[in-house]
Amino acid sequence: MFGLFNRIPSISTSELAGKLGKNLILLDVRTPGEYRGGHIASAKNVPLNKIADYRQKEAQPVYVICQSGMRSKQAARILKQKGYQVINVTGGMNRWTGPTRGGK
């Protein structure tokens, strides 16, 4: 039973694509260089090494993405411990087939 409380919900990149544009908070936890190389337009870059400092005013779910899903899982655990409702995007940008934007 104990494991159920620590489980981070996750969605696929195609499920994420269906939610974009709905005032969704999406954090890209890759390095600034990776982020500049191509990211989802609405994603905010908060690198994994800075995730513990993340602050958000409104209480709404936070979606977390990285390159493959490993760093976002770590980031999701940190955010969950801070009391955020977090959803990890499995497969990360490797599985993302939607449009991306380069630069900041």
Automatic annotation (TrEMBL):
SMART domains associated with the record: RHOD
One Pfam family from the record: Rhodanese
Domain (Rhodanese): residue spans on this chain: 20-98
Transmembrane segments: none
CDD domains, sorted: RHOD
Top-level taxon: Bacteria
Listed SUPFAM superfamilies: Rhodanese/Cell cycle control phosphatase
PANTHER family (alphabetical): FAD-DEPENDENT OXIDOREDUCTASE, SULFURTRANSFERASE YTWF-RELATED
Protein name: Rhodanese family protein
Organism: Enterococcus asini ATCC 700915
